[in-house]
Amino acid sequence: MKNIAGKTVLLTGASGGIGAFIARTLAQEGATVVGVSRSQSGLEKISAEINATGGKAISIPFDITKLAELPTLVEKINQIAGEVDIVINNAAIEKFRPFQNYTSEDIQSILTLNLHAPMELTRLLLPSMLERNIGHIVNISSGAGKKAAPFNSIYSASKAGLIAWSEAIRQELANTNIGVSVICPGCTNAGMFLALDMPAPSGVRIAEPTEVADVVIESIQQNRKEVILDSFAVKVFYALSQLSPEWGDSMIKKAGVIETNHNCAQKQMQAEYLIRN
């Protein structure tokens, strides 16, 4: 079992949502949490909370979608906290839309934050891990990466890409002491349905963000490869959907996912229109 105590952990998207819960749990395990997010106020809040309770947290406000500047971020982290032992790629953005209503900028921003930035950040951190022959990479994906969600196609594509990339590098690193874990939460009480004040589709299990945080810790400690944080029935659904996409699509429709996600898209687009105008 890997020991997290004393390790330096880089956590993206640490200022809120699931990220804040992961940060607290890491600190409770004795890790030094280097939180990165665009929200300086959110980072300062969670870091102050952790430090006040005896943990160790460092906040670095940074926009990881600025890919060309990521080497500067890594250098800054190395100077402040030392070399990174564990990276948790958690930052993500989700936009519900009919596909034709996405702009090119929407597609680029979602794919950059959800997929390209984790790849680039990990590419920069991996040589140090390989040199020391120690480390762990955790990628926070989604159930939408296992069975793509209608009206959420770009997010689904980014999360499916995260799963495939995790699987590939896990095999590349099989003969090292560097672990790779991908976590696939379903709906959570810190997710988009909550933000939009929308009910989750029928039959869907709602996970608490603390569950996700606990699974992240467990995945590092036990070097788990892939964790689907959902019911056994949903796991079976994902498996059978691979064998029969037609059946999977029919079950998605039957569960009301298409209607629910369409309503999410309408509500999100309306809210953004009101903000712009």
Task: Explain how this protein is built.
By secondary structure, the protein is an alpha/beta fold. The protein has a single domain (8-276), classed as NAD(P)-binding Rossmann-like Domain (Rossmann fold, 3-Layer(aba) Sandwich), CATH 3.40.50. It is built from ten helices and nine strands. The chain has helices at 17-28, 40-52, 70-81, 104-132, 153-172, 192-195, 209-222, 232-243, 245-254, 257-276; strands at residues 8-12, 32-37, 56-61, 86-89, 135-140, 178-185, 187-188, 206-207, 226-229. It has a seven-stranded parallel β-sheet, with helices on both faces. Strands 7-8 form a two-stranded parallel sheet. β1, α1 (17-28) and β2 (32-37) form a beta-alpha-beta unit. α4 packs parallel to α5 (153-172) and α8 packs across α9. It starts with 7 loop residues before the first strand and ends with a helix. The mean pLDDT is 93.
Task: Provide key terms for this protein.
277 residues; Rossmann fold; two-stranded parallel ribbon; alpha/beta
- CATH fold topology: Rossmann fold
Instruction: Classify the helix fraction into a percent range.
Output: 40-55%
Strand order of the largest sheet: 3-2-1-4-5-6-9
Overall body shape: globular
Number of contiguous helices: 10
CATH architectural group? 3-Layer(aba) Sandwich
CATH-level-4 superfamily name: NAD(P)-binding Rossmann-like Domain
What is the element string, with H for helices and E for strands?
A: EHEHEHEHEHEEHEHEHHH
The CATH class is identified as Alpha Beta
Poorly predicted ranges: none
Strand percentage: 15-25%
Judged by helices, strands and strand pairing, the structural class is: alpha/beta
Number of strands: 9
Question: Largest beta sheet, briefly?
Answer: 7 strands, parallel
State the end-to-end CA separation: 54 Å
User: What's the domain count?
Assistant: 1
Instruction: Give the radius of gyration.
Output: 18 Å
**Mean pLDDT across residues:** 93
